[in-house]
Amino acid sequence: MNARLAYIWRHPVKGIGSEACQTVELTPDGAVDMDRAWALMTDAAADTDAWQPRRNFVQVASGPRLAAVTAQTRGPIIDLSHPDRPPLALDPVTGGPNLATWLGDLWPQDRPTPNRLIRARDHGMTDTNYASVSVGNLASLRALSERAGQDIDMRRFRINLWLDGLAPWAETDLLLHDITLGTARLTPVEPIERCRAPDASPATGARDVSILKLLQDGWDTRNFGINFKVATPGTLSVGDLLQ
Known about the structure:
Layout: E1 4-10, E2 19-21, E3 23-27, E4 31-32, E5 38-42, E6 70-74, E7 77-82, E8 85-90, H1 96-103, E9 114-119, E10 133-137, H2 138-148, E11 161-164, E12 179-181, E13 184-193, H3 211-219, E14 223-232, E15 234-237
């Protein structure tokens, strides 16, 4: 069986909502179009024109209930939903205060206060200081689910591209060479070391499993997924063959 692109995800606001896509554009400077294009800064950080680390923003590792937010872009508007909130039609240019109010206690009160919604400058405000595209392997996810004794939702990992048709953990072989999906060529950079963010369920926002413990006990690793750079810009769609 040839490996194919099975799912595409992006996250228009860092840490706040996952959006399923059928087709996306990839560029060397911006990586996945509209992925982490916006980020809600806390009052513990100062805005700059540069990339900033995850700790400066509202994000799932510190606020697990955020895992249950879903997103859908609609032109300039980002529609957000959560089981415990009414829907929010967010205009990210002007709606930062509305977003902070909407979040309420979805963000822990003992954490720095949400302050300002900012536009990512050069590339999406990912957890890497370069424009990155994350790739996961559904076979590895199934192996992880089997060890956990429950289905592990792919959205926990906030990975952009999910491949199906590889052997479990064969994604590490992708570190050896460039890959092509659709018309885009990607260059591997590094495995993704995991934090506590994937412990939170996208259905409920509750921490209900220790992903790091599963990875460590089962495979002696803290890594899950691979980060790539875009070597050649292009369009990719669900169903594209891995080459």
